[in-house]
Amino acid sequence: MRPHYRDGDTIDWWHEDSAERERWKGLLSQHGLKGLLAPLLDASKMWFVVVCTGIGVGIAGGWLDVLVKWLGDLREGRCSYGFFYNSVACCSGLDPGEVCNEWQSWSNYLGVQSMLGQSLLQSLIYIALSVAFAASAAVLVVTYAPFAFHTGIPEIKAILGGYVLDSFLSPWTLLIKALGLALSVASGLSLGKEGPLVHVSCCVAFLLSRLFKQFRNNETQKRKVLAAAAAAGVSVAFGSPLGGVLFGLEELDSFANESDVMWRGFVTSVIAAVSLQYIDPFGTSKLVLFQVSNSSGNRWLAFELIPWLGLAVIGGVLGSLLIKLNVAVAVYRRNSFLNDWPITEVVGAAAVTAAISYLHRVQSSELVANLFQECDPARGDFHGLCNPTAMWENVFLLLLTSVAKVGFTAWTFGMMVPAGIFLPTIAIGASLGRAVGILTQGLYKAYPKAWIFSACPPDPSVRCIYPGFYAVIGASAMLAGVTRMTISLVVILFELTGALSHVLPIMISVMVAKWVGDAFGEDGIYAIWIAMRRYPWLAPIEYHDKGETAADVMTPAKSLVVLESGVLLGELGRILDTWEYHGFPVMEGKKLLGYSARDKLRTYIAPLLAEAGASDRRCFFSESASSTSAEVMGVDVSPLVEDVLQLRKDVPLELVVNMFKKLNLRHLTFTQAGELVGMITKTDIVALSTAHFAHTAALEREKPTSP
Amino acid sequence: MRPHYRDGDTIDWWHEDSAERERWKGLLSQHGLKGLLAPLLDASKMWFVVVCTGIGVGIAGGWLDVLVKWLGDLREGRCSYGFFYNSVACCSGLDPGEVCNEWQSWSNYLGVQSMLGQSLLQSLIYIALSVAFAASAAVLVVTYAPFAFHTGIPEIKAILGGYVLDSFLSPWTLLIKALGLALSVASGLSLGKEGPLVHVSCCVAFLLSRLFKQFRNNETQKRKVLAAAAAAGVSVAFGSPLGGVLFGLEELDSFANESDVMWRGFVTSVIAAVSLQYIDPFGTSKLVLFQVSNSSGNRWLAFELIPWLGLAVIGGVLGSLLIKLNVAVAVYRRNSFLNDWPITEVVGAAAVTAAISYLHRVQSSELVANLFQECDPARGDFHGLCNPTAMWENVFLLLLTSVAKVGFTAWTFGMMVPAGIFLPTIAIGASLGRAVGILTQGLYKAYPKAWIFSACPPDPSVRCIYPGFYAVIGASAMLAGVTRMTISLVVILFELTGALSHVLPIMISVMVAKWVGDAFGEDGIYAIWIAMRRYPWLAPIEYHDKGETAADVMTPAKSLVVLESGVLLGELGRILDTWEYHGFPVMEGKKLLGYSARDKLRTYIAPLLAEAGASDRRCFFSESASSTSAEVMGVDVSPLVEDVLQLRKDVPLELVVNMFKKLNLRHLTFTQAGELVGMITKTDIVALSTAHFAHTAALEREKPTSP
């Protein structure tokens, strides 16, 4: 009897696991060749899903890059010999130094001559197209797939933790999310594609897993495939296969001790990275996105730890601030007129963002790539960043950029468009870091003989400080402040930049930023959003009680609705109709027999109740009672009684929380010499772990009423 | 009341965890500045241990390399201007093409003129010194620190799983292991330094952790530090910090869902790698040990998957064979005269190995490095390996090498010297792989126009097949066959060779080799050694029952020794003296009250028993019973009753095994309506999971009788 899950339910791990066990036993018990081949076929289905997901995500990621580049360029002009070429493809094949005449700006194409007319027209088209892209994304999301908004990582964490939300993974959501993501990234809004790519990846895996009954009918098997797939999203977004695996491990907590799931995640994420490399959307045939120049040549010096520690502290503080701002905006949005005008909000944000960013017209990813580069006369001046005479101007502009981006990101992350928070956070941190780097360099040039710079060569014209690497440090610190990840962040950053030699300072800055951030509030942005939506999810971090025991949290036996063996059938039906709990403890006298799920009981007794006079029959929950009972008409419901874990009520709360996490429990009973004294459910534990956060459930979705 | 653990015990995770919880609460409850600073100080002690371990292991690894190189060179000659220079250091500073006259072979140094005399003398000194090194290592190990033999990884796995073996981590063992390792590696025996370096790393961490009470007095805290340290050993051995972390995760299963421990492991292993790089023992300032040349330039072709799959299958079969041979040798050694002549055995093995390997005189690591290299006329001919006319000769020699090395490795791994199995396994696999690569290349040169080679350029003088990479594939397959690791192996190999572009074929070969190997026997070499020594360790792999329930494995209540509330004190003492179980279920009538540990009970009642006439007093295990009892002289032992998990006896065995693993349990009771029906202990579960292996406990150590 397979339980029927609806969106909003929590799965029963024990039941699903034992169903899988039964299925597997059935496979093995077949005779002859079939018995030999069936397990192989079974495994090959799983590998089919895993490998195809990897390839699919790699291709999706590659096409997304191509699409974004084309849409983004479209805001400025078009290719004279083909509408579907982006500016780089349009101008490819030229000799160095040759001027590209094939790429025409809109004013050029439309034949506008006057200077004023040109710049007016260009800016108007730029802003109009930005708004149009953003608005289309919003319309798509609002109208067709509300689940396609936002990053998707909070929902994936919840789903992997046992929450049921199948419409979040539907093919429809996949399509809208992918398309909407391309549009929203191209619109220039302050958002990234990383989280949404994880979502896309899970949708692909879900879609593929529907092909096979073994995943369709089993929630834990489905989740194992999703866990493997999630890693691929990060792998493609950053070109970081190992970072993806560690992201799955640390942030999604998805491999929970099962090394075979981790191995599948590794395979998916490598295959995704390889197929992305094969598609090669940027024509560089490199996985490293933001290569740090000179990373292997230069050694970092001890005194640089001072500015870097400063950056780490700023990253922690600013990260916390960004989270708090984002929460404030989200809560305000929900409770104000904005709630009814989501598309208008997106249009407004896109217009403002485009108007402001028109001045530099650089996509976030390009900005980050430039900020990570060291200045090199041979490679040109990155938007004036390398002009040594404009130090203060550059510092001011960089600081302004980061402050503005904090505001825009806090606003954008949560609007009705697909939006990731990684890239904007990296951009904020990189701007800050570059500013600090330029300042340090300026200080060194001004006082090359100061004792603090004694490790540098005395000649200030020799390069000693590399501001590009300061940008990397800033980005690490800011990311740590916002997401509170550690090891996966470091790995992603060093795969992203190729700077293995500098992994130690990255590590230190991540650690310090996380500490500082934790001092202002313990949760990262994803955990905050989970709490705001009140998904039944348990944070993997260790819970420490303050001396409480289970007795302080449990619902005592006298407040529990219990089913007594021997209850009249009519009475049982009434209880099941009245109380919407997932299930009830089953008692015989004062003894606890087990637990029985409401759904199953209702399905079981519904046909019995329909019979005339059935209400007066007695239901027995233990076999012995029903067989010894004098009544011939007793109903034996003992097969519906499930096993339940029992503890004494004096165990420390910490242990209880731990058991819920490690064993994926849904409820736990407390007994004293076999008598029920209380019960704790997963909901109680979730409430406990989000108790310190003021806006819990601020954005809770109404439980969907499915047919 | 802290339990006193002796070597051979298993720790009580629940008790240790709650002790740590109490300590932490005590720290937080302090007032004023002390209350603020105490947790900080606490954390900084932990980081001190972690960081110092990293630095220490990095330095140890660096010095080990230097020492091995010097000792190894000493077998052939000496430096004329200083005894303590190795051949490379002795000849450094010369212009290219200049002949090094400073490094003198022994015959040269001793002034032997005749050709025959020279080669006789050289080979004699070579063999004599090899034997001397190996013998010194064996004498050191046998006489001073028997725990310093072998790889150490099985023991570390057991210790991290809760086994107590403090003498395995003593400073004395550390010293002998490090010194013995240098000697045994330099002696040219078929062994590597990877596993022993993990052991050394854990010893360093243990030594440092003794400084602080928080680790000294708490076994779980101690294990968290050890888990972090273990990663550093692999990091230093292979220059692979991420591989180290993943090794800890996959093979040692040491981070079990605790991301803070994983982060510490990451920090230790990066710091270790950085300090090794800083010491720079080889003067290359590179972490990548066996750089694969041209790895980024060439693309692999689809048809190459055929020879690679062949290699993978061979790796799996040969890996299994190596394990079985090694087990046979180990069992024979234990049960024959060799058991009493460990040093003689080492001397014999060293003499034979040296005599045979004198012909090519290449250390394993150098051999592997050469096998991984592509032939390049500019870089010289690696021992004739690149001679295109000697194809069959080379293939024959390579196959011979691998077969001989399988034999030597199976013999050596388990002798009384420190010995790792990674490097010899890599050498075997690399030889095989290179042979297959050379054959494929020969085939291509013979039939360049065959359809299978259609992806290659038609001109056979253009290189299409890179035999060096075949060696990498062979090494991966062989390693997977022997260790049965997956993800950490792939990461180690690509960090080792720098061949990120070829990670997909490495992955495939590892997977196939593991599947093939698993078909011949499910466990890797470390798990086999754990079973042979019967350490109480549970494999992290999923256990699948065949329909058994707990009832089939549990000791039924009627066969259990239980303590009844109300037992006479004298009788209790007698029970405790008679039965050497770790503890006993405590009953009141037929009701299960809990569990009580033997050690604690004995300590508690010993002073009471000493009083005259005390034997007739009654002991009560529940407070209510002792307070309502009419007897004034009743002894209240209720504080010694521990909580115990209760399940119904019909739960599937798989779930029981899972609970033991996830919750680190030591025992589990089964009740029916509060009445005890049976009990399962960790020992039962371990026996269950090693039941399929014939030589379980073949090498079991006698339980040490400590004072």
Count of DSSP-assigned helices of chain A: 27
The chain-level structural class of chain A is alpha/beta
- Give the biggest beta sheet of chain A: 4 strands, mixed
Based on the coordinates given, report the CATH architecture of the domain at 306-533 in chain A. Answer: Orthogonal Bundle
Question: Helical residue percent of chain A?
Answer: 55-70%
Adjacency order of strands in the biggest sheet of chain A: 3-12-11-10
Uncertain spans of chain A: 703-707
Quaternary class: homodimer
CATH class term of the domain at 306-533 in chain A: Mainly Alpha
Overall morphology of chain A: elongated
Q: What is the residue-averaged pLDDT of chain A?
A: 81
As a percent range, the share of strand residues of chain A is: 5-15%
Count of extended strands of chain A? 12
In CATH, the homologous superfamily of the domain at 306-533 in chain A goes by the name Clc chloride channel
The greatest interface here is: A-B, 65 and 65 residues
Through-space gap between termini of chain A:
20 Å
CATH domain topology of the domain at 306-533 in chain A: Clc chloride channel
**Radius of gyration of chain A, Cα only, in angstroms?**
29 Å
